[in-house]
Amino acid sequence: MTYGYVGKAARIDLGERSVSIEEPSESVYKNYIGGRGFGAFYLFREVPPKSDPLGPDNELIFATSVITGIPIPGMSRFSVVSKSPLTGGYGEAEAGGFFGSELKAAGFDALIIKGASETPVYIWIQDGKIELRDASALWGKTTKEAQSEIRKDLDDPLVRVALIGPAGENLVRYACIINELRNANGRSGLGAVMGSKRLKAVAVRGHRKAEVKDPEKVMAISKWFAAHWKEFPGAVTRSTYGTADGLMALEISGLLPTRNFQGGSFSKAEDLSGETMKDTILIGNDGCYACPVRCKRKVAAHEPYETDPLYGGPEYEAIAAFGSLCEIGNLSAISKANELCNAYSLDVISTGNVIAFAMECYSKGILAQKDTDGLELSFGNVDAMLQLVDMIACRRGIGNLLADGVKRAAQKIGKGSSRFALHVKGQELPMHEPRGKAGVGLGYAVSPSGADHLQNMHDGAFIKPSKSVEPLAITEGVDPDSLDADKVRLFVYGQLWWGLLDCVDACKFIFIPHPAGVLGTNHLVELVNASTGWETSLWSLMKASERALNLTRCFNVREGFTSADDSLPERLFEELSFGAKKGSKLDREKFHAALRLYYDMIGWDPDTGIPKAAKLYELGIGWATQEIATA
Ligand code: SF4
Fold this sequence. Notes:
Elements: E1 9-13, E2 18-22, H1 26-32, H2 35-46, E3 60-63, E4 78-83, E5 90-95, H3 99-105, E6 110-114, E7 121-126, E8 129-134, H4 143-154, E9 160-163, H5 166-169, E10 177-179, E11 183-185, H6 190-196, E12 199-205, H7 215-228, H8 233-241, H9 247-253, H10 274-279, E13 282-286, E14 296-299, H11 316-322, H12 331-344, H13 348-363, H14 382-393, H15 398-402, H16 405-413, E15 423-424, E16 427-428, H17 438-446, H18 485-503, H19 508-511, H20 521-532, H21 538-558, H22 588-602, H23 613-618, H24 624-629
Parallel strand pairs: 1-6, 7-12
Antiparallel strand pairs: 1-2, 3-4, 3-6, 4-5, 7-8, 9-10, 9-12, 10-11, 13-14, 15-16
Helix pairs in contact: 1-2, 2-18, 2-21, 7-20, 11-13, 12-14, 18-21, 18-22
Iron/sulfur cluster binds near residues 73, 96 and 294.
């Protein structure tokens, strides 16, 4: 009898049309916990080196954790891991909603999917049974159409569906996976991997009750959350205004990415704020399994664009990517772009970036109307922005070029356009400006999946020492602009904590340091022990995170990545052109010194960035040394 986890993973070969069930050992659960940990473990061991990310050898791993689905806010999430068609390296993205908890209720901790079907299929999982079903009639349909057809086909409106739209089918390299039409495994192009396998959807439904070892303890933490979460200002403002609650603070401090990261201030920022959304197009809150915060938005815009509330509403990343980054100050248009991305299964961050990149190329004369199918791609052109989303999803006209991401597009366009391609390892930058949060820049550089704001600490939360991070041995405040040794140390600990949240698949909004989050590090340890009956500790869980991080690094080393890939776009070493932080830039020497120090602190060779054998043995994954030695 297992507590907390099911004890089963399903292997599905779409080429062979075979399904088998395996029971990972207890030590796999204890060493890898779930989510990122499971994904990195299986991906590194099973996907042959140099496999085509869009080929049948690549695996697509859906993973929950040992605490997914317990009735605690923030425990709704699941990870999807694969080799990324965008970066060519380790790819990963998490999503909330209800799919993760439902997958466990349906009887599985993880799905390991490989091969490629000759014809479109979807996977149907119900109470321990797995079936492959024909999806030919669903191919080409939007996520809303396909989800509706699947629920009709299965005669159950409560089936949870993770699926792709036309962008995934068309192998757009930053296509995402959507569940409930509004939650995305956004980054890394995982929707294109699904498309390459001709897998339209994974549908799950289950009635297995989560068995935990100490239900009273879990209930006590749940009750504590219900009684206290409104005392945490970050959770309250997020519930009231969504993730755009901090947009105006970024604007005021000069850190709102604008005009393709040329500056940090947008004259129409107020029109995009969470407050404006609440006063105009917001029609309700939405949320995830067992979470009363309900920070997600439901919007209905009518003028000048009609939007469908079933697709939710834009979060901060979408608002800034289609808004300030493209100099568009119209929430209705941004909501429409967000809706199109959810309907087509496009990552909003990368999509906004490629459009801003194209706009900058146009403004500099590198692209002209003859290259853009007649579109006038000026910053601020709402119609052009919306048309491009459509053209990218369908790979039509210039959309075909942009569907491969800014790195590849710039390589094809040439004429110095790579200067305007803001990416790390090929993945476009999220809406957080490193020229005022230097640790975020270091995080973008070393994230295994390329620039990702959810894989590391954000400097602003650590200006003053906070009681909530004392268990992580962080007792001093830091300067957001600094990249000194104290910042690197904070970054290392923060990165491992953030990484642990992806191993347990916990919502970061619930578990980031106060006052933004609610539950603390010690709560997480208590939850793991109460759920599983283990006697783990914060130290042991942080080691699991470090183990997973090292496997992601080993995966990238084996794929040929070097320390040169831990770099940042040139623009970040140039001065911000406008806004309150005008003139700020990252110092190149300090960045490189910090990178070297980071390697040293984390146990990687300071020259090459390759994990040292001693570190891998210390983490109990010495077997990985051989794999990377022959890389
Ligand atoms: S805080 Fe928001 S994203 Fe996190 S679990 Fe709750 S509703 Fe979902």
